[in-house]
Design brief:
Blueprint: H1 14-33, H2 38-57, H3 61-68, H4 76-83, E1 84-89, E2 102-109, E3 112-119, H5 125-130, H6 138-153, E4 158-164, H7 171-175, H8 178-191, E5 196-205, H9 206-210, E6 217-221, E7 225-227, H10 231-239, H11 245-252, H12 256-261, E8 267-269, H13 280-298, H14 303-316
Parallel strand pairs: 3-4, 4-5, 5-6, 5-7, 6-8
Antiparallel strand pairs: 1-2, 2-3
Length: 324
């Protein structure tokens, strides 16, 4: 199991981080003094695994939101690097500019030629600024539409990786038609006849997420979230205060488990013990396996059936919701 860089310590992980620190200190001591630490190290690892199981067994919705936002979680480009061979990025919307946030291109996934679309957040301050903290502008959504048209023309499956707090809300984005770009991107998802598999890998925020997630299959990592609004914004609107974020998180029902129950998503992808930020490779492998499994079911279908299934899937949402 890979431990995190501890760039961000979640409130409920403090005990876990303390044990991890003891393990690292013990390893350093062994290197310096050449002593046998195997028994103590095994004991600490058992304690760590036990604490991880206890802490992650019953996370609250607010805690899941914190895990979904963890900066050490693998982001879009991490998945592209590990899962997509011969990836060729394609830039620009052919109208205004290229949006760095919206990653797009073609490549080979498990020997299948695919089109990949996703939002990149970045891992440090420099890259987060470059990728606008994962918030795409209108040209990003128009680039996504262009890539979906290309996938449709060449009958290539589309893999989308969703990780955004929402579309960029700046004045310049609104001036260039942000709402129209999102709506047109959603519409494009329903027009194309190629398979679309979407995975919520972290944050799935509002229209910025659904613009590339109106798919035949919607998958979610178990500690990701998918919602119409952030808990902070919801708290500010409903209670005129950010003090109610935990209540807002409970009310939004944005966890993978809730959304599977309501029929909004199709599959929950299990994360490694302690969350995706503790083992990026295992997480990415699990996502890749889940995408492949779903693509195998979709690829034999003809284009009209794929489009019809996708449309009916979304029309059915909300018609027969469970009471709880």
């Amino acid at each position: 199991m890979n431990t995190t860089s501890n760039s961000m310590v979640l409130d409920f992980e403090k005990t876990i981080v303390e044990v991890e620190a003891k393990i690292e200190s013990l390893k350093m001591l062994a290197k310096e003094e050449d002593v046998d630490i195997s028994k103590e190290l095994n004991r600490l690892h058992e304690k760590l695994n036990r604490q991880l199981r206890i802490s992650y067994a019953n996370l609250t919705p607010w805690q899941k939101a914190q895990v979904a936002r963890h900066p050490d979680r693998p982001h879009c480009l991490d998945y592209v690097q590990m899962l997509i061979e011969d990836f060729v990025p394609l830039a620009g919307d052919r109208a205004f500019a290229d949006d760095a946030t919206m990653i797009g291109g073609i490549g080979r996934f498990k020997r299948l030629s695919v089109v990949v679309i996703g939002q990149e957040k970045g891992h440090d301050l420099e890259s987060r600024i470059k990728y606008n903290f994962g918030m795409a502008k209108p040209e990003g959504y128009r680039k996504a539409q262009r890539l979906m048209d290309m996938a449709d023309k060449f009958n290539l499956p589309v893999i989308s990786l969703v990780d955004t707090d929402g579309a960029y809300p700046g004045v310049d984005a609104e001036a260039r038609g942000q709402a129209e770009a999102i709506a047109s991107s959603i519409e494009k998802c329903f027009q194309v006849k190629c398979p679309i598999v979407s995975t919520i890998i972290g944050m799935g925020g509002s229209g910025g997420a659904i613009a590339i997630a109106a798919a035949n299959r919607i998958l979610m990592l178990e500690n990701s979230i998918y919602s119409v609004i952030s808990p902070e914004a919801c708290s500010s609107i409903l209670w005129r205060s950010t003090d109610k974020v935990k209540d807002a998180a409970e009310a939004l029902r944005f966890t993978a488990q809730d959304l599977k129950h309501f029929g909004v998503i199709d599959e929950i992808i299990k994360e490694p013990l302690g969350g995706a930020h503790r083992d990026r490779k295992a997480t990415i492998d699990a996502v890749g396996n889940a995408i492949l499994s779903n693509l195998k079911e979709l690829l034999p279908m003809n284009g009209d059936d794929l489009r019809r299934e996708r449309t009916e899937k979304f029309l059915a949402m909300g018609r027969n919701l469970p009471e709880n």
